């Protein structure tokens, strides 16, 4: 389990144990629950004696590197997966799971959006899946879990975006939301899907979404969960576009480039990035865990 100290990684290890499997844990930071402390973007963990591998590490879209951005995302998301899956193939492993992004789902279902061409981060996720399967070969099926917002808690680990969202909804700043929305799921649900994919030797792309929320619904429910319920007002799409254009100008002046291009990001954020029908209330328990202290 590469990335075992993260929110989803911890849940995957727990579900593996619950279902009678043994797991070797790998993470960048040493800890009591980490068997091997190493940087998976640079080193390959020991694979002898294992049946399968899960990759839940890499670089996310919050990273804003120096321009050009793509080499940073390729180095963090593509190269380590190709190296890991190639080594897994050579050691005779029989199953693998890579935790990816739901942007690859929309890249596949809406090619007219040109997501990989416009956004370096999404390009890296598309290349990650391709490179993983190419390195693994025909005898090592690789399931790619396409993940949206993931709510939940594992000890002291929370989603990376939870703290800034909580500070915002509990501040005196206006609570506003643009059009559009996103699918959401829970860390426990992702873990169950990942372990089932390992057991079934799935080689599929698997979108994981339990509930579809507009941004207005999501921010309102987060405010409720923090104990600071208040009205969420509508934010015009034009304001979002102008703000993101300004963000792009600032990045350019700093010599930086975002993994999600601000010039084209409104085309994503203002859409309803939903997965399937969804189940109302499906993430309520995990949402409460995320924001209740």
UniProtKB/TrEMBL annotation:
InterPro entries: Epimerase_deHydtase, NAD(P)-bd_dom_sf
NAD-dependent epimerase/dehydratase domain location: 2-154
Top-rank taxon: Bacteria
One matching Pfam family: Epimerase
Ranges that cross the membrane: none
Gene3D superfamilies: NAD(P)-binding Rossmann-like Domain
Name of the protein in question: Nucleoside-diphosphate-sugar epimerase
Source organism: Saccharothrix variisporea
């Amino acid at each position: 389990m590469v990335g075992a100290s993260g929110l989803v990684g911890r849940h995957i290890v727990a579900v593996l144990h619950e279902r009678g499997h043994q797991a070797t844990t790998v993470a960048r930071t040493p800890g009591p629950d980490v068997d091997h402390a190493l940087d998976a973007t640079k080193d390959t963990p020991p694979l002898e004696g294992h049946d399968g591998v899960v990759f839940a590490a890499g670089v996310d879209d919050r990273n804003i590197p120096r321009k050009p951005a793509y080499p940073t995302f390729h180095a963090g998301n593509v190269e380590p997966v190709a190296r890991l899956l190639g080594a897994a193939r050579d050691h005779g492993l029989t199953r693998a799971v890579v935790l990816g992004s739901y942007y690859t789902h929309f890249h596949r279902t809406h090619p007219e959006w040109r997501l990989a061409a416009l956004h370096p981060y999404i390009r890296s996720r598309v290349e990650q899946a391709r490179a993983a399967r190419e390195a693994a070969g025909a005898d090592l099926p690789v399931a790619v879990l396409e993940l949206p917002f993931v709510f939940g808690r594992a000890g002291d680990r929370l989603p990376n975006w939870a703290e800034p969202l909580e500070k915002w909804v509990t501040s005196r700043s206006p609570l506003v939301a643009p059009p559009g929305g996103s699918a959401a799921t829970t860390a426990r649900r992702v873990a169950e899907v990942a372990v089932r994919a390992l057991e079934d030797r799935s080689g599929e792309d698997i979108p994981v979404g339990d509930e579809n929320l507009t941004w207005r619904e999501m921010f309102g429910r987060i405010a409720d969960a923090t104990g600071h319920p208040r009205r969420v007002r509508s934010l015009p799409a034009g304001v979002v576009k102008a703000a993101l254009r300004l963000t792009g100008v600032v990045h350019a002046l700093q010599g930086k480039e975002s993994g999600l291009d601000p010039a084209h990001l409104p085309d994503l954020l203002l859409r309803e990035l939903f997965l399937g029908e969804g189940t109302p209330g499906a993430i309520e328990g995990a949402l409460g865990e995320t924001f209740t202290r």
